[in-house]
Every structure is written in structure tokens, then in C-alpha cells.
Specification:
Helix content: over 70%
Shape: elongated
Order of helices and strands: HHHHHHH
Distance between the termini: 10 Å
Number of strands: 0
Length: 205
């Protein structure tokens, strides 16, 4: 690792840019986690997925609740598989390209979700997106730790967690102030971002 650290141990703009850019994976994770709770309450979503609307705030019946529960939970299931396989993937193709792969996978999953017209497609999109963000959640802190100078390594690694919570905050804000009042589905461009498209490579990886 000493081979890739600046001799001065100072924090350069390039390191900050690379680490901040890769934490978009955390933002995607947080956004997808936070936004779905509001989306499943929207009438447009329920109509598109063939689910009954809520009447006078009453609870959903058991069948509807189970289906919506799977819409929410299947992202975490995908994250599990993504995180479990991320280490071997990174060892085979490197940290940079494993992060790139996670971004591509999350993007494909987001596109499928945006285009879904039934629950099967939504399940598939959420699962694929989960694999992507699960990969990113494992690889990004590792990548940041390996490219960051020792003096600021902890701070830059913590950016991943900050990005996750920021993504949740943005998602809840979008749903609360834009989607639910207007009953309009909004898909933020940030969900379709591919982290590390222009990240610099290193011979160490």
C-alpha cells in the first residue's frame, strides 16, 4: 500500500474525488432502502402492480401485505448475495472493476424497477439492484481504505456510511414532499449512476 500513498501523506483533491465518487454506491443503497417505503403506499404504484388501494387508511389484507413485504425485503436478499460474493469478485478482477460491476448491476436493477408493470418484474429489479448495492457496500470501504493516505483513511472509509444515511434522507424527503402529495413516481437520476466510471486505476489492484 505504501506504493500508492503520497510521500507527503497529505490529502489531495484526487483522492477525495475518487473516494467521494465511489461512495455513490452507498448513496444508491440508502436511496433504494428509503424510497420504497413511500412508493408502496402510492396509488399509482398499486394500480400498476395490480394491488388494491388502501381505503380510509385501513391496513392491507394478508395477501397484499405479503406481496408488498417481498417488494421491500427482496432488495436485502440481493444485498446478501452481492456482499457474500464481493470478496471473491474483487480478488479476481480487482477493487476498481468490482465496484464498476456493482454500479452496472445496480443500474440494470433500477431500470427494471422503473419499467416494471407487474410484481414479477419489480421483484427481479429489486433483487438485481440488491446484488449491485450489496457488492458496493462491501467493496467501496475496502477500495477507499486502500487508496487513502494513512492520516485520513478512517475519515474517507466512513464516507460510505455517511452516503448511505444521506441517501435515506434524500429518499424520504423526495417521497414525503414530492411523490406522496402529487401521487407521482419520481426516479432520481442518481439511482442510475454508475460509480467509478472515471476512477483512476492502480497497479496494486
Amino acid at each position: 500500500l505504501d506504493a500508492i500513498e503520497p510521500a507527503s501523506e497529505k490529502l489531495g483533491w484526487r483522492t477525495v474525488f475518487v473516494c467521494s465518487f465511489t461512495t455513490l454506491g452507498g448513496f444508491i443503497f440508502g436511496y433504494d432502502t428509503g424510497v420504497i417505503g413511500g412508493v408502496i403506499e402510492m396509488e399509482g404504484f398499486r394500480d400498476t402492480m395490480g394491488l388494491p388501494r388502501k381505503v380510509n387508511g385501513e391496513d392491507d389484507n394478508e395477501d397484499t401485505a405479503n406481496k408488498l413485504g417481498w417488494v421491500v425485503a427482496i432488495l436485502s436478499l440481493g444485498c446478501f448475495f452481492g456482499a457474500v460474493t464481493a470478496g471473491q469478485l474483487a480478488d479476481r478482477i480487482g477493487r476498481k472493476w468490482a465496484t464498476f460491476w456493482g454500479g452496472i448491476t445496480a443500474t440494470v436493477g433500477a431500470v427494471v424497477q422503473a419499467a416494471a408493470t407487474d410484481l414479477v418484474a419489480m421483484y427481479a429489479g429489486r433483487f438485481v439492484c440488491g446484488i449491485g448495492v450489496g457488492t458496493l457496500s462491501s467493496i467501496v470501504p475496502l477500495y477507499n481504505a486502500e487508496v487513502a493516505p494513512k492520516a485520513v483513511r478512517g475519515f474517507l472509509v466512513a464516507l460510505q456510511q455517511l452516503a448511505i444515511t444521506f441517501g435515506i434522507m434524500v429518499a424520504l424527503s423526495v417521497v414525503s414532499f414530492l411523490c406522496l402529495p402529487s401521487q407521482t413516481l419520481l426516479f432520481m437520476p442518481a439511482r442510475l449512476s454508475v460509480p467509478l466510471l472515471s476512477c483512476t486505476s492502480s497497479r496494486e489492484f
